[in-house]
Amino acid sequence: MSNETDQETAATTGEGGGDIVKSSTMMSTQHQHHHHHHIMSTSVEEVDEQVLEMTQSTTTVSSSNSSSGNTTNNIHSRAQKSYKNLHEFSEEMLETEKAGLVERVYDLERQVLEHKDEIVCLKSTLADVLRRLATIDNSYENSTSGSGRGGTGTPAAGGAGGGSGGHHTVSDNVSASGQNSLSSKSFRFSRNTLTRLNSTVDEKRFGRVPSRVTSSPSRVKTNLAQKAIHYSNGSLHSDSMSSHSISPAPSPSPRQPNASAVANSHHALLASSGGMGKRWSSTGDFISTPGSPSGTGSSGSMSRFSAKSLLNLSGNSSRQGQTHPYVQRKNEDDEYVKLYISGRPIVIHLPEAQLSTYELTKVQPAPNRRLRLDWAYGYRGKDCRSNLYQLPTGEMVYFVAAVVILYNMDEHTQRHYLGHTDDVKSLAVHPNKLLVASGQCGGHEGRDSLPHILIWNSVSLATLNMIGCGEFTGSINCLSFSRADSGSILAAIDDSPDKIISIWDWQKKEGGRKITETKCSVDTVVAVEFHPLDKGQIITIGKNHIAFWSLDQNGMLYKRMGVFESFEKPKYVTAISFTQTGDVVTGDSSGNLAVWKRGTNVISRFLKKVHEGPVFSICALRNGGFVTGGKDGLLLLFDDALHIKAEQIVEAHFGAVRVVAEGKGSQLLIGTTKNCILSGDFTLSLVPIVMGHTDILWSLATHPQVAQFVTGGRDRLLQLWDSLSHSVVWSKDIGEPIHAVQIANAGDVIVAGGVGGRWSVFDIVTRELLATYTDGQEVIQCMQFSPDGNLLAVGSKDNCIYIYQCTKVAHRFSKIGKCTGHSSFISHLDWSKDSQVLRSNSGDYEILYWNPTLCRQITSQSTVKNLEWATQNCSVSFETIGIWPENFDGTDINSVCKDGEEQFLVCADDFGKIRLFSFPASQPKSLSHSYRGHSSHVTAVQFMHDGVRLLSAGGMDTSVLQWRVV
Question: Bias category Polar residues: which stretches (predicted)?
């Protein structure tokens, strides 16, 4: 019996031991996958030893007392408990290891993103360096060609890359420093080098070189390899110099470049442009230029015109056709012509010197000089969001009017993307930090003015694609590139009544391919964002909603609305960002912050009343923290656990915080609701780097001696600017809208016309109010000092002109009287060069002449028709006949001016365009160069005192653009 019992017990123990060994082996295998098999194996071995001890004990007991069955059951029970403890122990370690694994996965994701950002930064920096080297290369080629080595040269100011100074190549610098003197070819990068590198990057990034759509009206498609640097067409009448070049450094004495050199280089550029399409309608495009190669552009373009046209240009045409659709001269002996504006004939008398040679059929050529955008003042933060970004190259990108600005704060230079035809409303930067998408609202004319999106390269400013032209009904208010799949698709919100969300494969063919679209919300949508980690996940926010969208592989969109449950549902969800782990962070109109767990549509954490009023922006920092900004002007710094660490106040006169972007290091960029951009951090005060107007900009005047100008608008701000440092000297709220400004000839006071007939005098240095005068009860429309500085004419909306005598005290004026006779409001004023005669235009296109000392109208045309005028503000005159195109409404031309040397005439219209004519533009067929940049009616244009720079003021777009004659 004893032997049988021992065998039975041994058998039982062997089975149990086998199970334990099997269990140990399985657990060791599992934990090898979790990198802790040594610990688990040790634990299992200890348990095995305990079980073996119990087995030996059981064998001993069985030998001494084989009939003790209860004891054996107890031992089995103990063994089962050990198995249970072992199982629980393994489960606990599995859970611990799982939590650690999730943390490590998040950490790996963070590291991958950091490395990706570093690679993007290196690529962007390399591309920018190549662009700069190409600029130096171009300057070198231009300087050598100008030295007689062949070809035609162009000044640095008008170059494609346009740097400040810098005509020396790298090899020149090496030789100068005593290094080995090598050939410049060893160190120079040509445009082809830049093109090849750009193409290589595009091929690696997208699998092909995307075709681009140029910003010319004809939208001719060319390959990126044809041009490394994009020449943005600023003219409707001729291809003008690109405005994307780096602005030259401020110079106290700007110099006009050689006109013939610019013209020759322009023709050389056109000749080398291969298959680029062109719209020939400027005489500068087909008049042969000395030194130009025969058979390059000129002969081909001449065939587009008839012999009659060429005869007209040479002045040898017959005198039979003395009529024009809107200008008439019945007989050759007539001393006047009739200019028809809006069907109303205006009689304009011809100067005696023009009587024998003036012909309506002649064509006046456009000037051989061009305008290039030098600087754009202003920023659109009043009604736009997410429109301020820092690029790896050190430039910040933002927009105003129809211009996207790339501003380098360290170098104080701007480059400009001018592909848009109307207001830019949205901006998005590709994950590679090289490409930018910008969306615009509908324009005034043509297909290119329909709402659309442009994809362009931030280094070369080449347009890669135009998306959705004709597909959108409202402006594109929100844009976002996908982030989890390296930006292959683009989401856009159409601000139509249905608030359509559309998804685009922007790399497919010309115009992109629309993957899908659907109605987003009946209410306002303020932002759309792709999830940074989850592919196909999109979040939209706006009035009364936050929506989580999923885009499947078939291009279908599915929406889940955010559920607020017991938390306060806001009127607006106003801001959105993401944590490093993929959670969604939103801010609302009540000042609350909410955290939405990744992959869900419910709130996991809620921070109440963080701001007093709406949260306008949430910026995710590189270290995992956040910065929030709101309507209360407060900036708050949070750590990655959303604990407040610091705060900063934005001064009230700068406006509320609209957008926060992370700059270099700890630097922050803050866009405000009063169209300012500030820079700083939480340890130092915030410094304004961009300032602007916030409402309709009506008036602009230049300083007669120095490089300064003054602006005034409906926002009641009177601002003095410096055009060399591109900054605001001072700004003053005068308490009423400003409709007219002028600077006295001595440059010591500013006069500003307001509403209710009031106009005020301010000291130009201290901005102190010196005096206030009142004339009538209507708005002061225009003001003009006489050339000798003794008289001031004030034009009012009450149809009268008030004449003042300037006294020895700068701010004291003595009224002489008022000139009455106009049947509409006074729109423009000009003085004769001898200060003896004043001429005026009115709202009904009338032109009258006045004796200012007597305040009487001069009716004898023989007295005034031969006069020379100090200024050219009047849009209706003999000198401006050619600025009126056919079918133009009289109100479409808002402002005109001429330069001091009387070479150029510039006019500004209601369609956001500036046109450059030769002065005088007295022929009905006067050709011009046309430039875009403004998106609203251009209310004023004025040349600076040096005649090299031109300033233009936008109306609703609140911008000031500074142009340079090149």
Answer: 171-183
